[in-house]
Amino acid sequence: MLIDSYFNCIIEFLTQCSMKRQNVRTLSLVVCTFTYLLIGAAVFDSLESEFEAKRYDFLQTLKKNFIKKYNVSGEDFRMMEIVIIENKPHKAGPQWKFAGAFYFATVVLAMIGYGHSTPVTIGGKAFCMAYAMVGIPLGLVMFQSIGERLNKFASVIIRRAKRYLQCSHTEATEMNLMLATGMLSSIIITTGAAVFSRYEGWSYFDSFYYCFVTLTTIGFGDYVALQNDQALTNKPGYVALSLVFILFGLAVVAASINLLVLRFMTMQAEDAKRDEQDAQNLAAANQTVTFDTEHSTSYNMQGKLLNNSNYTNEFDETASICSCTCGTRCMNHEPFADPDFRPTDIIASNLSLKRASV
């Protein structure tokens, strides 16, 4: 009973220690994330705040000059602002015809959310929420499935390339897959940036920025394709190319990011499993516990008698009662030298024979 209680206490203690290590790991991730956020806020503040102030002053000066030049009241100027802002999405053509609606549905399903076009009616807003609740999980599963197939295809290519190069290890490792998907993502982004730079008139850097923001589903909306020269109705090929870029690019980038995230999740799961296994191994180890009794009996952690324990039955009639350390026969050994001798007088007595400690 005492041994069982001791065993259970060890299991509980090691389990608690493992949970504490997991808590420390989680707390470390939270601290690192918030530290990263603070660093990002500080960098963006130093890079953007001064330019923002200058831009605001410039716009206010331009507004005052416009009001003064054309003798426009403040209320009329605000009305002009509303008209200009509301009219901006219509430069691409009808936003809610089939082509524009399909583009909007793609943006919703991919969780990009440019904000260039939004539903206005109550029915449109309600349907948008219901559509997103079903479409977003469906899109995630689709992108994940495509990413897995891409990873499988990449692993086959990597194995064949390693065999062709006669490498000693021909298996495709996680690092190989991450490098392959990362290279494919880079190719898609750089190629898409060249295409959008040509069709939209943006600089290559701005186009690269748009592709990165789109495929990472950030979707600021400061740069949105298909919003100029009635592109939704007049350029169907360009519309199809943009949709293919978004869907295929999201699948590739999702595969790359998922490999990276799964790598860290696997490491965490392996650590937790290793901690649990160490706890079980330590608790179930064949550790000897010796009780200080007159028999000096040894038990393992489960309370079982060890096979090599120096244990002799208290009533073993064949045990020697001699406790000397002599190397030759003494007077105590002489009676036992005769094989026909039996200590019947001792056996018949009520004395119990015990093994002497040497």
From TrEMBL:
- Which key words are in the record? Ion channel, Ion transport, Membrane, Potassium, Potassium channel, Potassium transport, Transmembrane, Transmembrane helix, Transport
Cite a GO CC annotation: plasma membrane
| Stretches assigned to the Potassium channel domain | 94-150, 186-261
Pfam families on file: Ion_trans_2
Q: Where in the cell is it found?
A: Membrane
Q: How does it sit in the membrane?
A: Multi-pass membrane protein
Query: Mind telling me which Gene3D superfamilies this protein's record contains?
Result: 1.10.287.70
Under InterPro entries, the record lists: 2pore_dom_K_chnl (IPR003280), 2pore_dom_K_chnl_TASK (IPR003092), K_chnl_dom (IPR013099)
Task: Locate the transmembrane regions by residue number.
Answer: 26-44, 96-114, 126-146, 177-196, 208-226, 238-264
Task: Name the GO terms of the biological process aspect.
Answer: stabilization of membrane potential
MF terms in GO: outward rectifier potassium channel activity; potassium ion leak channel activity
Give the record's family classification. Belongs to the two pore domain potassium channel (TC 1.A.1.8) family.
Record protein name field = Potassium channel domain-containing protein
Organism, scientific name: Glossina brevipalpis
